[in-house]
Amino acid sequence: MRTSIRTAGAIALAGLLATACSEGRAAEAPPRVDLTDKVSLVSYTSCDDMLNDIRRKTAENATPWGVGGPAVYGRAFSEAADAMPAATAAKGAVSDQSYSTTNVHEAGVDEPDLVKTDGQRVITVSQGLLRVVDIESRRVTGTLRLVPKEQAWAQADLLISGNRALVLFEGVGGMIPLGAMAKVMPGPAGPKYVLVDLSGRPKVLSTMTADGMHVDARQVGSTVRIVVRSQPNITLPPPKPDMPESELLERNRKAVLAAPVNAWLPAFQIKGDGVTRTDAVKCEKISHPAEYTGTSMLTVHTIDLAADQTFSPDSPISVAADGDTVYGTATSLYVTSNPRWWLRPMVIDDMPMPTPRVTGKPRKPAPTPTTPPERTEVHRFDITAAGSPRYVDSGSVPGRLLNQYSLSESKGNLRVATTSNSETFGGARETSESGVYVLDAASLSPVGSVTGLGKGERIYSVRFIGDVGYVVTFKQTDPLYALDLRNPADPKVTGQLKISGYSAYLHPGGEGRLLGVGQEATQSGQTIGTQISLFDVSDPASPKIVSRFLQEKSGSEAEWDPHAFVYWPQSGLAMLPLQSWGGDVIEGSSALVLKVGDGGIDKVGLISHPSKTVQGSFAPVDQGIRRCMVIGDAIWTVSDGGLKVSDATSLADRAWIPFV
Question: Which residues form the signal peptide (predicted)?
Answer without folding.
Answer: 1-26
